[in-house]
Specification:
A hairpin with a 4-residue loop joins strand 3 and strand 4. About 35% of the residues are buried. The protein is an alpha+beta fold. The chain has a seven-stranded mixed sheet with strand order 1-2-3-4-5-7-6.
Length: about 170
């Protein structure tokens, strides 16, 4: 799958939409493209690459952005938080603001569901992600080994007023 570099202004980009069964190949392609380079660094296939994408789409957990799909999130509402299971942006769309749009959408989704916080995790060897999440106001909760994965868990409280904690602009 080839992607033309996304250049649309992130302020006017379409908001993520629920993925459909027809999107499953694109979901897999974006996740594989976004995470493949980590295999050598962490020594195992990143967990998002091993997920059952069709099941996640069928369960209503996957939201995609772009045409063709250039980014996506996999979210799971829990009783007291929204769990951001995966965020992926195709390498051709990185640096366009799409990741920021997706992160903002996740926080808006938590608020819309009446959930007070967003939680996520990343592999300890994915240091780029750690810097990004901390820049967006996420705080480290713990670092924990989970099978072959060394994971850092994060959380962020989300206010009813989105201007108080939206992702940074730039």
């Amino acid at each position: 799958m080839t992607h033309d570099r996304v250049t649309q202004d992130p302020r006017t980009r379409d908001v993520p939409r629920p993925a459909t069964r027809a999107d499953v190949p694109a979901v897999k392609a974006v996740i594989d493209a976004a995470f493949h380079h980590y295999i050598e660094r962490i020594g195992v296939v990143p967990a998002p690459m091993e997920e059952d994408h069709a099941a996640n789409v069928a369960a209503g957990r996957v939201f995609v952005a772009g045409e063709p799909v250039a980014g996506l999130v996999v979210v799971v509402p829990e009783a007291d938080h929204l769990y951001l299971d995966t965020i992926a942006v195709h390498p051709d769309a990185q640096g366009t603001g799409l990741g920021r749009v997706l992160m903002g959408w996740v926080e808006d989704r938590a608020r819309a569901l009446g959930l007070p916080e967003v939680r996520l995790l990343t592999n300890a060897m994915m240091w780029e992600n750690q810097k990004l999440y901390e820049r967006y106001g996420y705080e480290v909760v713990e670092r924990r080994l989970d099978g072959p994965y060394d994971r850092i868990h994060y959380r962020k409280s989300v206010s009813v007023d989105p201007t108080l904690n939206s992702p940074p602009m730039g």
